[in-house]
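Supplementary Methods. Inverse-folding protocol.

Structures were first reduced to a discrete structure-token string of length 258. This string, shown here, constituted the complete conditioning input.
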């Protein structure tokens, strides 16, 4: 099980400062929800941890080792896997082929080993077993998200970086996907979960970090943030028109976010 930490990160896109002095620690086998409105910096943080953005200042640490600036393929080999926003599957390839692509660079090639890895993913997402020979582009949004996460899981990651996995999914599927995320962390994977669906994310997370304008404004136990009206009201932003109806009994601030 691995600890992931970032320390004083600053990330810029030319004149835009996307992250400013961001520090957090994700405990081994925990889920840390990264919350915030559009443009708050969630994607930039995940991409920086994954080696796709280079910070101008600050460090990324895996179990205390400085991994700042290492290329993405090396970080992937070390067990840091990003599931990008929008899934980015190969629509014309089958589910099985998409999952195999996740093994690129791992050295796992024998049919037996590949099958074993894919079997493990199907144990995590049983809906994928029957879908293995189907083209990924023909699957439902929820199944496509499972393939996208599965493509990272075939590598048996130490750190899983999930960028908006609930985007565009029906509430039932959001619950299913996030419940699986919770189980993965219980199995020892350290998860950073960027979500606009704040209430759903906080329910499956141990810790919640709220970003605003590229800076951390709250970093607390998820349960505390879930019940903190002020946090939701000030930092989580307004509801989007396409957002699903909120469950009853949630604090008003989180209802806004839903
Ligand atoms: P979203 O939920 O919309 O993806 P986010 O919280 O993930 O938002 P980021 O995508 O990390 O936020 O964006 C943080 C800031 O960086 C925003 O001001 C955004 O406009 C800017 N930004 C992101 N990517 C780029 C880029 N490639 N070039 C210039 N600015 C960028």
């Amino acid at each position: 099980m691995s600890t992931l930490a970032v320390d004083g990160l600053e990330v810029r896109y030319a004149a835009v400062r996307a992250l400013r002095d961001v520090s957090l620690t994700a405990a081994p086998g925990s889920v840390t929800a990264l919350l915030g409105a559009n443009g708050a910096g969630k994607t930039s943080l995940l991409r920086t941890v994954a080696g796709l953005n280079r910070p101008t200042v600050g460090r990324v640490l895996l179990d205390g080792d400085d991994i700042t600036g290492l290329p993405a393929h090396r970080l992937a080999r070390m067990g840091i896997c990003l599931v990008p926003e929008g899934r980015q599957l190969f629509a014309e390839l089958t589910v099985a082929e998409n999952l195999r692509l996740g093994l690129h660079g791992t050295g796992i090639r024998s049919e037996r080993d590949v099958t074993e890895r894919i079997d493990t993913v199907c144990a995590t997402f049983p809906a994928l077993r029957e879908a293995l020979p189907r083209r990924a582009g023909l699957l439902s949004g929820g199944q496509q998200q499972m393939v996208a996460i599965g493509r990272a899981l075939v590598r048996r990651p130490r750190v899983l970086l999930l960028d908006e996995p609930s985007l565009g999914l029906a509430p039932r599927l959001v619950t299913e996907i996030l419940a699986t995320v919770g189980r993965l962390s219980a199995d020892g994977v350290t998860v950073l979960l960027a979500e606009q669906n704040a209430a759903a994310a906080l329910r499956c997370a141990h810790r919640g970090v709220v970003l605003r304008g590229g800076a951390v404004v709250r970093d607390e136990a998820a349960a505390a943030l879930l019940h903190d009206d002020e946090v939701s009201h000030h930092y989580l932003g307004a509801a989007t028109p396409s957002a699903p109806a909120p469950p009853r009994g949630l604090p008003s601030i989180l209802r806004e976010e839903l």
